[in-house]
Specification:
The structure holds two protein chains of two kinds. Chain A is α+β, with helices and mostly antiparallel strands. Chain A is built from two helices and four strands. Chain A has a four-stranded antiparallel sheet with strand order 2-3-1-4, covered by helices on one side. The longest helix of chain A is centred in the N-terminal third of the chain and has 12 residues. The radius of gyration of chain A is 11 Å and the shape is globular. Chain A starts with a strand and ends with a strand. The relative contact order of chain A is 0.34. The model of chain A has no long low-confidence stretch (mean pLDDT 86). By secondary structure, chain B is an alpha+beta fold. In chain B, strand 18, helix 19 and strand 19 form a beta-alpha-beta unit. The chains are: A alpha+beta, B alpha+beta.
Chain lengths: 77, 624
């Protein structure tokens, strides 16, 4: 299992949180309980199985919603 | 394409504004309805494009967002050919979210200032012994690094060579330079003001004190209280409900105008953003002032505190005893002080240290034989003299007779709360010293401020003897003071207070008092920045700075009030809009959107006030 910390461009609408949550939760391999979307810090934190999905896939899901990723970090848990 | 349109949102807003001005001048100056209508149609379509994209993306992940409501409203307005409304609503919505973003950045600025202090580069010693600049992520524990004047310390580490002064404001909130030399600890994110240091890296990245503080603050600013979670759940169903409501209204009244107006008025904006904005600004202010508040729940609880319990006299007193008063009997004081110092030098008891410190420079003699009598003192031989240093019990054992004056002095010193050290030479009393733990400077003022902020009970629980504790309590006008308290007893005492309905904050150092810290409604740790206390408590006073306590309490009070104001504003605005829709003539979509966006800005601006919160005593503190 790995832990991803993704820094987004500043989030300004609280409804973005719900959108990002739903989008990332929908990815197979992401641990649903571990998902945290931090509104003020504009960060997404999630644990995922590197066999089922990848950081690229998670980033793509977020960017498809229109929220550009600034940088991301993955480390093993 | 979608992303391109979204990235051009600000330019689109500008163009719409120009088009709307153009349209109205076309109508009123040139009296040309064709220019008027077509400009507005173009403006509406341009403006609705980014909103529609966002709405589509939201629906794709099954979220009915505000964008969905606004998109339907604007399309509806276009359909019934109300171009004026459709264009103005899109403009207000886009312009509003632009302003929101700008002002939100301001409320987050305090925390951003903090995270921006994170070091990025380091000078690392490579295999060839040369230093090379590398990214801080490439530094490992055990690496040797060089820190030059003006540079940031990249990791937590230990000084190997060199010395200099470091500004540790980023972790302690105190911008007084601290002197560092070989073996001193240095912390990531602090700035070397002069000198050059070679350090060994001990902790890196998120494990550094600074990294932990940042992570903590980031989590705190986004932590949610019960009320917020309720609002979140509420808004999840609220927006779809507004959609359904407007559809039902349309079904029965066949009044499209009314139906789409309801869509716009029902936007929940200010409600969802109000509390997070107060939260981030309040926590930001704290972080900037040496107070870590762990989330909005903590803010609410702390603001209601009526009892503060201090874990030990050491919190209120300096914690290292000093000689407070002394009496000499007979002559040869210099010589006797030398004997006393020579004997005390053999001991590492804190009282012995206090005595030595008080005597200062003197001539030491060789001590031939020493005997430590537990709980009483020391008996030693210097040359032909027999020296006894200890309490009254030891003097009795040594058959030292106390004169009338000496007896009176002993009584007086004891009443003053001193621990006594008597020195007798060959059975004759020569010196009486009273040793006392000093009250920390500024504590009186801090306690007074806390009382002024509405704290009713100030309690000290201590392991010290009751006499010492009583004295501190009397001196500081505490409500209650209990000595001989073991950690379990302290926890039980706090439980008892809570059973009486008091909201209790516990101030401790977090290591041996963790049961009490956890049990109290609010655990306040005097963290020197490196302690485990950071993890176990609700509030951390960085650098163990006691004087931050009133700021912390005042800040939580004003932040909690700010949150309530924002909720009131948000709910009030929606209520006013809906009732005026039913009972007044003037309400329409554009006014609704204007009021709605304005209310969002009002709550953000209201939250921003928290960034400026400052106490009178803070001001004096920085000046002195």
């Amino acid at each position: 299992m790995e832990k991803a910390v993704i820094q987004l461009e500043t989030l300004s609408c609280p409804s973005c949180i719900q959108k990002i949550e739903n989008a990332v939760k929908g990815i197979n391999g992401v641990h649903q309980d571990s998902l945290k979307v931090l509104f003020n810090a504009s960060k997404v934190k999630a644990d995922f199985d590197s066999e089922k999905t990848s950081i690229n896939e998670i980033e793509k899901a977020i960017e498809n919603l229109g929220y550009p990723v600034v940088k991301s970090k993955v480390k093993p848990v | 394409m979608q992303r391109y349109i979204l990235s051009k949102k600000n330019s689109i807003t500008m163009i719409i504004a120009i088009l709307i001005v153009f349209a109205f001048s076309g109508r009123f100056v040139l009296d040309n309805m064709i220019i008027f209508n077509w400009s507005l149609i173009v403006a509406s379509i341009l403006g609705v494009a980014p909103i529609m994209i966002q709405a589509y993306q939201a629906l794709k992940v099954k979220v009915v967002s505000i964008d969905v409501l606004v998109t339907i409203a604007v399309l509806g307005a276009l359909l019934i050919q109300n171009y004026e409304e459709s264009s103005i609503v899109t403009f207000l919505f886009l312009f509003g979210s632009y302003l929101e973003q700008r002002t939100l950045n301001k409320t987050r600025s305090a925390i951003k200032e903090l995270t921006d202090l994170a070091p990025e580069n380091a000078l690392k010693q490579m295999e060839n012994k040369e230093y090379e600049e590398v990214n801080v992520n490439d530094v490992d524990e055990g690496d040797i690094l060089l820190v030059k004047t003006g540079a940031k310390v990249p990791v937590d580490g230990t000084v190997l060579t060199g010395e200099g002064h470091i500004n540790e404001a980023s972790i302690t909130g105190e911008s007084v330079p601290v002197r560092k030399r070989v073996d001193s600890e240095v912390f990531a994110g602090t700035i070397l003001e002069n000198g050059t240091l070679q350090i060994r890296s001990d902790r890196i990245g998120e494990d550094t004190t600074f990294g932990r503080i940042i992570e903590l603050v980031e989590e705190a600013q986004d932590s949610k209280s019960e009320a917020e979670r309720f609002i979140d759940r509420f808004s999840k169903y609220y927006t779809p409900a507004v959609l359904v409501l407007s559809f039902i209204v349309w079904l029965f009244s066949r009044d499209s105008e009314l139906a789409i107006t309801i869509l716009v008025l029902g936007c929940p904006g200010a409600l969802v953003i109000g509390v997070p904005v107060s939260n981030v600004a309040g926590i930001g202010n704290g972080a900037r002032n040496g107070v870590l508040l762990k989330g909005s729940e903590v803010i609410n609880d702390f603001s209601k505190v009526d009892t503060i319990v201090f874990d030990k006299t050491g919190t209120l007193t300096v914690g290292n005893p000093e000689v407070a008063e002394k009496e000499f009997y007979g002559d040869n004081t210099e010589e006797i002080l030398g004997y006393l110092a020579s004997v005390e030098r053999e001991s590492d008891h804190p009282i012995a240290k206090a005595v030595l410190q008080d005597i200062g420079k003197t001539t030491f003699s060789t001590v031939e034989k020493t005997e430590v009598i537990k709980g009483e003192g020391i008996v030693a031989k210097i040359g032909v003299h027999r020296i006894a240093v200890g309490n009254v019990a030891l003097m009795e054992k040594e058959n030292v007779k106390l004169s009338k004056k000496a007896k009176k002095d002993v009584e007086l010193f004891e009443k003053n709360g001193d621990s006594l050290v008597l020195t007798a030479i060959d059975g004759e009393l020569k010196i009486l010293m009273g040793i006392r733990d000093q009250i920390r400077p500024g504590v009186r003022k801090v306690l007074r401020s806390l009382k002024m902020l509405g704290v009713k009970n100030l309690v000290v629980l201590s392991g010290d003897n009751q006499g010492t504790v009583d004295l501190v309590a009397r001196d500081l006008k505490l409500t209650e003071a209990h000595g001989h308290m073991l950690p379990e007893k302290k926890a039980a005492y706090i439980e008892n207070l809570q059973a009486k309905g008091q909201i209790v904050a516990f101030v401790g150092d977090g290591v041996n008092d963790s049961p009490s810290l956890a049990l109290a409604n609010i655990g306040i740790a005097m963290g020197s920045g490196t302690d485990v206390a950071i993890e176990t408590s609700d509030v951390v006073l960085m650098n163990s700075d006691f004087s931050r306590l009133p700021h912390a309490l005042g800040l939580t009070k004003i932040t909690s009030r700010n949150m309530k104001q924002n909720i009131t504003i948000a709910i009030g605005v929606v209520l006013i809009l809906l009732t005026s829709l039913l009972f007044s003539e003037w309400m329409n979509m554009s006014i609704g959107m204007l009021v709605h966006e304005a209310s969002i800005l009002v709550v953000i601006l209201n939250g921003m006030r928290l960034l400026r919160y400052r106490r009178e005593d803070d001001f004096n503190r920085t000046r002195s």
